[in-house]
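Translate structure to sequence.
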């Protein structure tokens, strides 16, 4: 197998979604051993999912291991090099879609016994606790800004002379995502990643899930535009700081 950055982004995002959406499925679907395990379990496992995704991306050839079009956009703005934005985004979204399909297969017997259609959709994509598009958008902007600024600080010479000590970066990012989930995730489900939401939402739309309803496309722009705005603002800040 030929390793490449695009393959790495695809495989890393696929792994992240398999484990991240997988924990959501375990917590919300009926008759799993993790049913009703709660928000702490979801946010903790999502942090681990990001960690596993980063290492998988590196293994398959992406030293960047962004797994997130918002991260790619932010660092493109910081470095003034936009050549990776579209290729990476396509690979990341495709990885998100495939990861979601694997979650559907893994939990195959549990879809028919779960009656609520919104619960099933929630395995795949985010939805707000209270639907207010302006407030929901602001939450995604702020949470993504935090993600990019703190991730940028972790590798910045302004914080540590040579950035984060070798090998510890992925663990720090995992803790960052965990912290964002606990502190800022309860309003919108903290997509903070267009590929994390759009790829699985597309999977929900096309998969033969028993008793499913619509894929809530009327909300789908929020977890895409919000992270894009937050990442843009953070990228401008990082560039201005010379981080």
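Result:
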């Amino acid at each position: 197998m030929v390793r490449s950055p695009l393959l790495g982004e695809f495989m890393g995002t696929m792994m992240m979604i398999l484990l991240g959406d997988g924990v959501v499925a375990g917590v919300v679907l009926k008759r799993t051993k993790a049913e009703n395990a709660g928000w702490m379990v979801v946010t903790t496992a999502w942090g681990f999912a990001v960690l596993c995704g980063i290492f998988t991306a590196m293994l398959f050839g992406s030293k960047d291991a962004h797994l997130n079009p918002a991260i790619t956009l932010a660092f493109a703005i910081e470095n003034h090099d936009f050549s990776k934005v579209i290729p990476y985004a396509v690979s990341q979204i495709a990885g998100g879609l495939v990861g979601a399909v694997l979650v559907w297969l893994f939990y195959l017997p549990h879809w028919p016994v779960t009656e609520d259609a919104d619960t099933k959709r929630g395995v795949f994509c985010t939805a707000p606790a209270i639907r207010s598009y302006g407030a929901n958008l602001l939450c995604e902007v702020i949470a993504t800004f935090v993600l990019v600024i703190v991730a940028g600080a972790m590798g910045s010479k302004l914080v540590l002379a040579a950035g984060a000590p070798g090998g510890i970066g992925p663990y720090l990012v995992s803790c960052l995502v965990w912290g964002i989930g606990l502190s800022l995730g309860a309003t919108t489900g903290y997509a903070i990643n267009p590929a994390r939401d759009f790829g699985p939402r597309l999977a929900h739309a096309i998969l033969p899930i028993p008793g499913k309803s619509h894929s809530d496309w009327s909300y789908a722009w929020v977890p895409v535009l919000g992270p894009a705005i937050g990442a843009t603002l953070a990228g401008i800040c990082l560039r201005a700081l010379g981080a």
